[in-house]
Structure formats: C-alpha cells, structure tokens
Design goal:
The complex is a heterotetramer, with 2 copies of chain A (83 residues) and 2 copies of chain C (152 residues). Chain A has 83 residues and is α+β, with helices and mostly antiparallel strands. Chain A has 3 helices and 5 strands; from the N terminus they run E-H-E-H-H-E-E-E. The relative contact order of chain A is 0.27. Helices cover 34% and strands 34% of the residues of chain C. Chain C has a 4-stranded mixed beta sheet, sandwiched between helices. In chain C, strands 7-5-9-10 form a 4-stranded antiparallel beta sheet, with no helix packed on it. In chain C, a hairpin with a 2-residue loop joins strand 3 and strand 4. Classes of the chains: A alpha+beta (83), C alpha+beta (152). Chains in contact: A-D, B-C, C-D. Chains C and D meet through helix 1, strand 2 and helix 3 of C and helix 1, strand 2 and helix 3 of D. Strand 2 of chain C pairs antiparallel with strand 2 of chain D, so a sheet runs across the interface.
Amino acid sequence: MSLRVLYFAWLRERIGVPSETVDTGAATVADLVAELRTREERYALAFSDLRSVRVAVDQELTGFDAPLAGAREVAFFPPMTGG
Amino acid sequence: MSLRVLYFAWLRERIGVPSETVDTGAATVADLVAELRTREERYALAFSDLRSVRVAVDQELTGFDAPLAGAREVAFFPPMTGG
Amino acid sequence: MTVRVQRDDFDLGAELAALRAGRTDIGALVSFTGLVRDSAGGDAVSGLELEHYPGMTEQALAKIESEARDRWPLQACLIVHRWGRLLPGEQIMMVATASPHRQAAFEAAEFLMDFLKSRAPFWKREHGPAGAKWVDARNLDEAALARWTKPR
Amino acid sequence: MTVRVQRDDFDLGAELAALRAGRTDIGALVSFTGLVRDSAGGDAVSGLELEHYPGMTEQALAKIESEARDRWPLQACLIVHRWGRLLPGEQIMMVATASPHRQAAFEAAEFLMDFLKSRAPFWKREHGPAGAKWVDARNLDEAALARWTKPR
C-alpha cells in the first residue's frame, strides 16, 4: 500500500519534510508509527511522545487505533492552536 | 416640597403628561403614589398594579420604600426593554 | 467616553476598527448588534419606537460599562444605543468588548447585554397591523441577570 | 459558502454588513475577532506564523459551521481564518453569527470559537527575541469543548 504521509508544525520540522510517500503494510496508524520509528532516528524523535501528536486519516481527525485499509492520506501534527 | 415627576412609556400615556411638578409632603415613593392615586382617576389607573411599575429617584433605580427627603426628581415607568 | 445614546445610526465596522486602531495588545474583540426584526411573536412589525430617559440613560449605561471593566480585564468597551423611530433591519444598539483573552471578551459582552435589557431606561413600542403596543419585559431577561450575581 | 481560509486580511465591518444586507429578520448579530497580540506569557511577540492543512482545514471549518447551524436557529454564520505571517495588531480570524435572539447568537459564536481552537488544523508559531516557538495547546481550550457535549 502506498500512502501519502503529511507532517505539520514541529513534527514537520523534526522529520524534515512536509510530506512523503510511504510504502507500508501497516494495518493501523499505530502500526505505521511503529514502522516509521524503526526507520530513522528523526522519526523516533518526532514520535517519542504520542500524547502530543494528533492524527488525521484522509483529512478526518481520528485515533492511533484507526485502520488504514483504503486510506490514501495520513497526517501527523501537534494539538491544534487555531482561532 | 416641590418634586419634578416624570412618566415614561404607557405610564406617560395613561397619565397624559411626560412630566409635571408636584407639591407634596410624601416621605417615601409609596406615599407619593398613594397621594397621586387619590388625586385623579388617571393616576389610580396608571398605578393600579405596582408590580409592573418601576421607579427611579434622582435617576437612580430604587424601590417604593425609598425616602424622598432631599429628592428633586422621581420617575415612574414600566420594566425596561432596552438592548 | 465609551457610552453613547443617539438618534442617528452608527457604523458598526468603523466603531470596531476604532476600538483596536493603533493597538497591538488586544487578543479578542467581541461585538453584539441588536437589530429591528420584522416580526415578534408571530405578528408583523412595521417599525419600532424607542423611548428613553435622557440623563438617566447615560448614567445607567456608564455604570454598567464601569462594572464590566471592574469585573473583566477589558482594554476597550463600547456601548452605543439609539432611540426614536426605527424600521425593520435597522440597528438598535451595539456593545463591543476587547480583552487579551476570548472568554473575558465574550463574558463581558453578555454581561453588558443582560444588564442593558433590564436595567437601562429604554422602552420599546412595536408598530404592526393591529396598531402600536409596548413591548413587555421578558421574565427570561430578568432571570439572565441572576447569573452575574454569583461570586466570581 | 460561509467558510473561508485565506492569506489576505478581511474587512470585519464589510463582512458583518454583508451578513445582514437586505434582511429584516435578524435580531442579534454577534462577532468575534482574534488579533495578534504583542506579548504572550510575558514574552514580547514580534510576529505570528500560522500553518494549516489545506483541504482538511476547509472541511473541518465547514463541519463546525454546519454543526452550529444544527444546534441553533442561525440565519447567517461566517468563519474566516487567515494563514501565513502576521504582525501584532493584525486580524487572525473572525466568526459571526446571526439569529432572531441574542442567546443563540452568543452561544453559537462561543461554540464555533471553542471548536476552532482545538479542532481546526491550524498551528501557531510565535516570533520573539529568543527566536520562534510553536504555541502549545492550552488544557483550558480542550476543557472549553466539554461544555458543548452535554445534551441540550
């Protein structure tokens, strides 16, 4: 499965790119995070404390247990600070 | 004592004048109302239900038990509907 | 002076722009504008007449405004209230509050409105097909005041 | 469409005038405007950077706006949110709500703000003498959401 993965705010800075294409067999967001963490130090650093990371699958806020079957886009970002 | 007495909204309409000068020895607002009531039918009518009448002495909202000593202006009106 | 009682209309956008002009310390600006509706309780309304108590009105609004400033950290606060004859769609009044934080700005604006409704000497008369009638004060408006008497 | 995400500034007065233009059924118009402050937590702020998630932002705002319309009898509802670099004193965003009655207009505006703060994909970075830092989400903002989940 080929996923478009996006990073925002300090997650983008730590990982070093705003988006990338990831080939993965991850079943859930949590699986994808685990896979990225083992890939390179910068991912391990960015995902070191998931309490301060939020996730959206196909532009809908969701949890780390969300399934990735059929998903095209996953985004990781800190808690939002709009308004 | 010479008081300037003002009436607003339907109290003004029932009494027929927006303001008048009243010579009175009334000690409180309630005494003044009692005095006006005996004066003419239109006052008795206007003051028939005091639950729907509010009073200000010298432009400060107050109760019917407020003393009139030293007062210059008394106003009667229905509950306010600003905003 | 940030309280005005006037017959003429006001320019909401210009008032709000003036409140924050040249300032960089305001974080939140809230405004409320009251407008004449074309109906009330199912009856058509062709116009509104606003009577007030000149002298007391200005005092009452200044007192309400000053109390809001005591309760919340407001950087600006404005009350404009019209009187006279107004047509449906016209602006009746506005309040605006500016504060570093949104909750203070919202609360102060609601406080001003609740007090204006029941404590400022204005009386509304609605004109409709059956003639003119004085608008009754709503128990709801009196009840809305109660929430501000709790100790903060 | 009553949700806009844009880099450019907006004209608050013109937006509010447009909401009520030609209408005579609105009784209450509430607006909230968020502005860039020149300080935060005691530190000077020389500018703000707003990053967002194009595509998701518009969807999230439309969803929030639609939920407000479901909950309150709104005759008009507007959200405008900027992104990019802003200087102290500049407008960040606005919401406006119009309703026959004031309580609905106030509540809907507060609801929109509470959801915008924590559920719309915007991130703020403050620039100051010590460099730039991402603004932390406040627990207070998350808590503010809770009041809207109670059954009405």
